[in-house]
Amino acid sequence: MNSPQTAEPMTLTSADGYRLAALRYDPPHASRGHLIVAGATGTPQKFYRRFAEYAAAQGFTVLTFDYRGIGLSKPKTLKGFQASYTDWGRLDLAAAVDAMSDGNTLLYMVGHSFGGHAFGLLPNHARVERFYVYGVGAGWHGWMPTLEGLRVRFAWKILLPLLTRWKGYMPSQLLGMGENLPMGVYRQWRRWCEFPHYFFDDPDAAELTYQFPRVHTPIVAANALDDAWAPPRSRDAFMQGYRSAPVETVDLDPRDGLGTIGHFGYFRPQAQSLWDETLAWFLRPDARAA
Question: Full-prediction pTM beyond 0.90?
């Protein structure tokens, strides 16, 4: 791996005035493109540092950021803090797109899990030239391996309602599930995971999904066969929502030399070959998804 690139702290301001902590990684020479990392639920931007450093070393200007309520963008307490998945997509990720689109340099995006949901919520998605997402899924327990599905149902039905009532937010850290989450994010996540096609099946969320058919950006959605939270069939159930976009799906087999991937291995150092494929796809002149 090439030497790390220095990250410059930035502040993004969402349309509603909320200030978000971000880091910008500049390449050593002229930029080959701008790149935003849209992270997973409860996953702070520091988790994507190695990927961002690597992409910068390959010539991309990379932006990582923390959604409101997590990482360096969280308040002193989450109890009573108002934030939702909808805010993360329509406001926070949208602010990142505004900050990185200058009209001269092509803008790309790499998403992880929720990042694949958020792209369709963007009011300014048309500014993104190409989108590559790892580990996106519909969240429904029925798409998961049996044991994992049972664990998830227990968490949603019994454990998390008790814990959130006690804390006033979702105490994910107690369960080893990443950063604690605002109550609004928890409530939307829990509800949408009840449906096989996530919020596309939720009659109360119809206004959220109107933007998805307007997306024409080429998309590649890669999922690992050993990703218990988002196996390929879960991805396929969700990606139907991008019905107007050219979408290519990729199934990653850990036996092909990658080792264990799971839901987070896409961004660990042993996955550098995946990063190379992603960055090369961005730069291909004919990079239209099949």
Answer: yes
